[in-house]
Amino acid sequence: MDTTLDKPVLARAERHPEKAHRPDNPVARKPDWIRVKAPNSPEYAETKRLMRQYGLSTVCEEAACPNIGECWKLKHATFMIMGDTCTRACAFCNVKTGLPGALNPHEPGNVAEAVQKLGLHHVVVTSVDRDDLDDGGAAHFAAVITAIHGAAPGTTVEILTPDFLRKPGAIETVVAASPDVFNHNLETVPRLYPTIRPGARYFTSLQLLARVKEIDPSSFTKSGLMVGLGETRAEIGQVMDDLRAADVDFLTIGQYLQPTPKHAAVDRFWTPDEFAQLAAMARGKGFLMVSATPLTRSSYHAGDDFARLRAARQARLAASA
Predict the structure, then answer these.
(1) How far are the Cα atoms of 79, 118, 265 from residue 292, in angstroms, in the given order?
(2) Which tens digits make up the pLDDT trace of 244-266?
(3) Bias regions of kind Basic and acidic residues — which residues (predicted)?
């Protein structure tokens, strides 16, 4: 069977210059429960054509997401704004790293027009890290949200933001634009941050999520974890507790997949039964929504999940009335 996941892309020096000198980590063969078919549907081709027409980037392509064939067949794409080059160099991420170019002032309008053309009911907007910008790109995020609200007022907007490290006022700027879901991923357990997410700070990410709820208690907040990097079940449980202390509503957990031999190696593949156990643990800790499967990603089935998230909150409020 043809699969996209048995063919890791090469870590070209121009894409990941900071990783070029590293020794190779052999890319482990994926188990049967992670295999997916190569994308080849007409809808996939049309979605790709539309992205190129408007000069837009997607995290689906840049991060080599395994679900791209399924999502693009349904015309679900996660827009990646502020360019395709990240100022950080996380050990797990396949997005290009380096010095980004200037922001495109037409990007908010282009994203909004693409959302309208695709007829999206729910859209996910993420970005590269832009540590080079005074506000980390917060005003640009707000402009994109506002443009989508204007062009497609019936579309709900979910954002997946960087941590805006050392960018005072950035979170407030983004929240003021009224996204329907504010997502920021912790990615892994704090012990692994120095090697897996060296440019970030675990408690900064937690504080961001808590601050969103302080500004707007009615907002939906969301975060995600990868497993398979060497974390323990106890450490995952502690991260869940930390997220609930920050009043995070929705948790996603998926299997880390090594993009190239220069990226962090997979420590192990968690089984579907183990993911079901993690989901049960998270529900027991009080999350409104949990998605935990090997192929779960932050924006996977995001529209359907958002509908369930709203319904879960309404049910909880009704039960406590």
Answers:
(1) 23, 28, 21
(2) 999 999 999 999 999 889 999 99
(3) 12-31
